[in-house]
Amino acid sequence: MACVTAVVVWGELSTGALVAVGLTGAAMAAVGVARRSGGAAAPVGRRGLPWLGWFAAVLGWELVTLADDDLPTVSDLADPLLASPAVRGLATLGWLAVGAWLLARPRRRTTAS
Fold this sequence. Notes:
Distance between the termini: 41 Å
Structural class: mainly alpha
Number of domains: 1
Largest sheet: none
Order of helices and strands: HHHHH
Number of helices: 5
Number of strands: 0
Radius of gyration: 18 Å
Oligomer: single chain
């Protein structure tokens, strides 16, 4: 909740919010690596192709915006949506919830008895 509070109080593009989100993200990543979260999850297979498509589209858009300054980046498009402190706090809470879900993924395969 400290991260959400920092983002809501300090606002977007502030040093305090950047530090709070960066430290929280780094801590979650370190816990995930140390716990080997998701190590026992089943392989994604073809179910991941739509996600790969979305990732490629966003990456392509960001690369195009590097070449053309007149085009907005994804973060530029999201700025009006995240202008409200309440929405920014809810978005941060959602980001943390996804991180918690990723950390809770299985670490070891269970064997059927």
